[in-house]
Amino acid sequence: MKTFSTDRLNPQRIARRRITFFSSIFVLTSLATWFMADLLWRGGLDGIEIALLILFVILFAHIATGFCMAMIGFFVVNRGGDSCRIVNTVDWAAVKDPPLAGTAVIVPIANEDVSRVFEGLRVIYRSVQEARQLEYFDFFILSDSNQPNQWIQEEVAWVELCKQVGGFGRIFYRKRRQAINRKSGNVADFLRRWGRNYRYMAVLDADSLMTGQALVRLVAMMEKNPAVGIIQTAPRIVNGVTLYARLQQFANRLYSPLFLAGLNYWQQHDGNYWGHNAIIRVQPFMEHCCLPDLPGREPFGGRILSHDFVEAALMRKAGWQVWLAPDLEGSYEEGPPTLIDSAKRDRRWCQGNMQHNWLLFARGFRPINRVHLFLGIMGYVASPLWLLFLLLSSINVFGVVTSGGFTALPESYTSVFGYTVEVPEALTLFAFTMLLLFLPKALSVIVTLRDRELTAAFGGPPRLAASTLLEAAASVLIAPVNMLFNSKFVLFTLLGQGVSWITQRRGPGEDDTDWREAILTHAWHTAIGLVWGVSAFILVPQFFWWLSPVLAGLVFSIPLSIFLSKAGFGRGAERLGLFLTPEESRPSYELERLRQNLAECYQHLRPIEPLRDDYGLLQAVLDPYVNAVHVSLLRQRRPSENSREYFLHLRQRLLTEGPAGLTGREKMALLLDADSLIWLHRELWRLPAGALAGWWRLAMRQYNVLTATPVTALYR
Predict the structure, then answer these.
(1) Cα distance between residue 509 and residue 515, in whole Å
(2) Which one, of 29, 34, 35, lies nearest residue 59 by Cα?
(3) Confidence grade of residue 698 (pLDDT, cut at 50, 70, 90)
(4) Is 575 left (phi over 0), alpha (psi -120 to 50) or beta?
(5) pTM (predicted TM-score)
(6) Residue 444's closest CA among 652, 251, 194?
């Protein structure tokens, strides 16, 4: 294999690549702008027409950026791949045991599905062990969970995992007392305590999975390239159950190779960091990537939410390279199960990206990092701009009608933005736009069909074609719904409404959207679509048909959201061979092992209903083993006299009233106090049943049954 060195990057070649990419965007945007201007200025440009033209230029440039990235990716893939890739710096055929260094695999979590987290870590640990490189890796679960059940469940699952795989001294668990600065603060806390013990850290999310070979290769690439600070993998979305999740993972797997190849082509060593499934050189990250507080208050100021883009920019500012490894196999993640869950996640991401407005002109940032920040902002700002474009178009058309300037048109003419034009001219611009949107999808299918083995993994040519057409149709319906979601998020951010951290729903069973949630979430989408559509149909039927793709998604958003959230429909599509991916039809050993482990976990008995909500507290107080584990992990503190009285009062209430008599904050306070846990355990087993709340009497009767169940399987 031909290798290259990142130390000898050719600046002229990189400049030519970037000139090609950005010039292509400019040419396409200029051509479309000429068509649009020709349609608008025939009757003279007024304020609305000027605004429409400006919005069109911005929106079309955004579309052209993705199109050019895919076209360049198609060119790169067609010629056999890009020689300038980070994976090409190591000759894998010649190097069987590449030199490695101490690496921490960290998994920051907050109120996540305990079974998924620890079974995922079990699979990663075993995979590294089977790669015979375990001596170089340590594993850290970094918890910010603030729910008693989650906290205790995590501790017990950690102990059980370490016992089962022999992981004591190599798998570590830490629970922060205060979740300061969310995930970035959790990582910073790890680095302050243990960072200097490791040369690298591999950052994973709660739903991430990486094979041992992928981790070994990441470390080997870092060792080979001492100027590289971050290598970001391109995780593939897996384990989708609902129809929405399966659509997303199919689109990710089929279309992303072209876009990623094009992205790597022009960004090269000025890459980005996506926050997970990446490896980082610890020392420069600690020295240069401390996140500043932004001026002002949230949502625009304060602590940075989308920390990853900023950390990549800071790493590049310090002179360290950041690379994307788009073709590294063995990196996976999971996506949100429903359209509504996806919107909840986007709400937080929107605010984080909007904060980057402060940093677009930050001193010392590289131009390409400013481009990354700008594209992240545009990913959300494009939605309100598109909405504004459609609204201004409607106002323009309705204004012409109400002023009496509109008459019935011959079949060879139509109305576009209030102007009477010949159908071929309007259709030319429309077809040009559709070409940019859908040609990359068609080319992705063509590239896939050239590989018979890969095509078979997608279900064969007929099923691949059918899946692509159905995914394209679904994306057309979903796009206007996401447009309104993101427009609302941007507006709320501008109005100063911040967001709270919402744990993403994961795992089987947490999928279906009920009708009440769908109606409450999408009612305003439906209302806007109906009012807009009826008005357009009454006033200008021709304009209504131009808007119909947008209106259809809005009007049918409630049943669409319900339909896409159904796991039954997702499984039905799987049985028909639709939306298959290679990771599903031919899963890696690690993926298959994870699915089997989770299937066993989720089949086990769960706590009976009266005990479910406080089962973690029950374990920590009642079970001698869990009590000892929990107390041993707490930092010993000497409370003040007032604190002692407060804790004594809480202990008595817990025993006599049961957990229902305490608030969540009070339960967490008890769980953080080692003396209280020791006292409660002793008193619970010492006192007669009549002195205890009925909840505790039920708990003691049922606990023998519950302890027969594997602890990691009691909750999702």
Answers:
(1) 16
(2) 29
(3) confident
(4) alpha
(5) 0.91
(6) 251
Give the distance from CA 689 to its chain's centroid: 49
Residue 601: other Cβ atoms inside 10 A: 22
Q: What is the chain's percent helix, strand, coil content, to nearest 5?
A: 65, 10, 25
Tokens of residue 19, six digits: 């000139």
Q: What is the mean pLDDT of residues 212-220?
A: 96
Q: Which secondary structure element, helix H or strand E, spans residue 416, and what is its range?
A: strand 413-416
Give the phi and the psi of residue 20 in degrees, each rounded to 5.
Answer: -60, -45
Closest CA to 202 of 220, 226, 225, 179: 220
Q: 302: helix, coil or strand?
A: strand
As to burial, measured by CB atoms within 10 angstroms (0-12 exposed, 13-18 middle, 19+ buried), residue 463 is: middle
Q: What is the pLDDT of residue 412?
A: 44
Please give the structure tokens belonging to residue 400. 């012409």
For the segment 433-476, what is each residue's pLDDT rounded down to a tens digit? 899 999 999 999 999 999 999 999 999 999 999 999 999 999 99
Residue by residue, DSSP assigns 120-148 as: HHHHHHHHHHHTT-GGGEEEEEEE---SH
Q: DSSP letter at 713?
A: G
Question: How sure is the predictor about 418, in pLDDT bands with cuts at 50, 70 and 90?
Answer: very low
Per-domain residue ranges for the chain?
609-713
Structure tokens at 447: 């590239």
Residues whose CB is less than 8 angstroms from the CB of residue 574 and which lie 6 or more positions away in sequence, other chains included: 246, 580, 584
| Rounded-to-integer distance, Cα 202 and Cα 212, Å | 12
Q: Are strands 209-210 and 236-237 parallel, antiparallel or unpaired?
A: unpaired
- DSSP-derived pairing of the beta strands 331-333 and 236-237: parallel
Element (H, E) at 339: helix 339-355
Q: How is the beta sheet containing 228-233 ordered, strand by strand? A: 171-175, 137-143, 103-109, 200-203, 278-281, 228-233, 321-325
| Residue 501: pLDDT band with limits 50, 70, 90 | very low
Could you tell me the sign of the dihedral formed by the alpha carbons of 84, 327, 113, 622, in that order?
A: negative
Extract the tokens encoding 531: 């009012």
Between helix 11-40 and helix 423-449 the angle, nearest 10°, is 150
3-state secondary structure of 23: helix
**Pseudo-torsion of CA 348, 351, 356, 358, nearest 10°?**
-150
Sorted by sequence, the CB contacts under 8 Å of residue 381 that are 6+ apart come out as 354, 490
Among 266, 278, 448, CA closest to 367: 266
Which residue type is seen at 529? G
Report whether 436 contacts 63 (CB < 8 A). Answer: yes
357-371, 467-481, 500-514, 655-669: least confidently modelled range: 500-514
